[in-house]
């Protein structure tokens, strides 16, 4: 049976204290700002994630961003081994401390400007660090920092200076853009040299103009190159166990991929070059993502990229494709989403009495008490249409809500809404119906989920 160890071993911590069993799952299993690590790890949400591994569905995993699912490289275990390894443990043994956004770069795929923490943010980061240090000391491994740069963050550096791993084969994995990965910063964590250290550097380009653009306008390529040679020396002298260089391939750098890989392997002598696709998260708008996603067959650079992938250097066994060779779903420019919404509302509003029509459809289905999913113009129009009808709108629900009220009603996030008090949820942004349905079911909603275009 296919087996993934992460939900049974790993805790992935975000800057707001939210925790996932893995960074590639969709759902939060708790928050360590208001609960202990043990409480979060043994929560019902955590057990639900584990059940999706036990039943083989992996239904709460993101197949596109998980390299093991994308490449179908999860190990196959016998039934006996699988049963043994899927027993829940009291505490995690692996930690991914991605709990600080502080970074010295502002890559467009991640953020629009250099992150500046406020007092509350710093207070929470210190609380998280204090909770993590004792359990990390007893753990098997630590990875940091997927949401910022470990050497740029004084708080992650402080955490690294404080930990004293007890296990002889403790594994430390550091991810950095490399600009501050120099002798001065390495000296601060020299007490960790006795452990197995893996370092991954994420430059995204060695061409100056592309590098400057992809780092958010920061022109420190020369410093990076110097530090890559320094890391090479750490690898040669045995101070680190493994040296990886990673690139997120996209519209601005895909043409240099063969030369990038060649330089990584020959000049810097890294153990592995990891090639990732651009993912739709953080600061990217739908329009920006569409232009960067060259794995979309509708992208104007798609065919050229497919030819580049045939270059012999990319077949080297030291090159690892993290989904950057899997063709994505064919998608038109996001303009077409707006057209779909426009057509749906045009159909609804073309009715001589759209308010009565919508009310009648919901009443015929037996729904009088509903919530609306989404905080957007579509949701506002639906709410206004239902005003003065027999349909009672209780609240708005939105996974990524940044406001607490909308149209005079409360806005709740998925982990806050009461799944038992409403009969149906009317989905305003129905082009994301599949993901919304998955999330609502995970949080216990058993009622009807209605896309408004039905």
From TrEMBL:
CDD domains per UniProt: SPASM
Domain of life: Bacteria
SUPFAM superfamilies, sorted: Radical SAM enzymes (SSF102114)
Domain 4Fe4S-binding SPASM span(s) in chain numbering: 4-62
Pfam families: SPASM
InterPro entries: 4Fe4S-binding_SPASM_dom, Aldolase_TIM, Radical_SAM_PqqE_MftC-like, rSAM_sf
The name this protein goes by in its record: 4Fe4S-binding SPASM domain-containing protein
């Amino acid at each position: 049976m296919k087996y993934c160890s992460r939900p049974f071993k790993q805790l992935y911590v975000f800057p707001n204290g939210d925790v996932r069993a893995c960074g590639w799952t969709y759902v939060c299993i708790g928050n360590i700002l208001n609960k202990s690590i043990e409480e979060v790890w043994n929560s019902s949400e955590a057990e639900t994630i584990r059940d999706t591994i036990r039943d083989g569905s992996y239904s709460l995993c993101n197949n596109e961003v998980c390299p093991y699912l994308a490449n179908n490289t999860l190990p196959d275990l016998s039934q006996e081994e699988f049963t043994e390894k899927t027993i829940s443990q009291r505490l995690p043994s692996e930690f991914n401390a991605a709990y600080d956004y502080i970074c010295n770069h502002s890559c467009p795929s991640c953020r629009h400007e250099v992150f500046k923490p406020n007092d509350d943010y710093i207070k929470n980061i210190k609380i998280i660090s204090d909770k993590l240090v004792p359990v990390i000391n007893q753990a098997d491994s630590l990875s940091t920092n997927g949401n910022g740069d470990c050497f740029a963050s004084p708080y992650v550096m402080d955490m690294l200076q404080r930990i004293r791993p007890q296990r002889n084969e403790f594994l430390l994995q550091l991810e950095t853009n490399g600009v501050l990965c120099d002798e001065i910063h390495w000296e601060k964590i020299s007490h960790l040299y006795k452990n197995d250290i893996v370092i991954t550097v994420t430059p995204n380009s060695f061409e100056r103009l592309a590098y400057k653009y992809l780092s958010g306008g920061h022109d420190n390529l020369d410093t990076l190159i110097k530090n890559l040679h320094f890391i090479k020396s750490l690898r040669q002298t045995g101070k680190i166990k493994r040296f990886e260089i990673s690139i997120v391939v996209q519209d601005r750098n895909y043409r240099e991929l063969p030369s990038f890989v060649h330089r990584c392997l020959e000049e810097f002598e890294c153990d592995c070059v990891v090639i990732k696709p651009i993912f739709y998260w953080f600061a990217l708008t739908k329009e920006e993502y569409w232009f960067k996603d060259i794995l979309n067959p509708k992208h104007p650079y798609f065919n050229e990229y497919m030819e580049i992938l045939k270059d012999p250097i990319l077949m080297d066994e030291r090159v690892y494709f993290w989904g950057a060779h899997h063709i994505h779903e064919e998608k038109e420019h996001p303009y077409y989403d707006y057209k779909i919404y426009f057509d749906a509302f045009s159909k609804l509003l073309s009715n001589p009495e759209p308010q009565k029509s919508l009310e009648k459809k919901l009443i015929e289905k037996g729904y009088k008490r509903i919530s609306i999913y989404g905080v957007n113009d579509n949701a506002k129009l639906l709410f206004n249409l239902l005003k003065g009808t027999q349909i009672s709108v209780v609240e708005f629900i939105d996974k990524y809500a940044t406001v607490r009220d909308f149209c005079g009603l409360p806005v709740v996030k998925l982990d806050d809404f009461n799944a038992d008090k409403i009969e149906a949820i009317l989905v305003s942004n129905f082009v994301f119906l599949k993901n919304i349905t998955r999330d609502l079911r995970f949080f216990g909603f058993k009622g009807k989920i209605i896309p408004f275009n039905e």
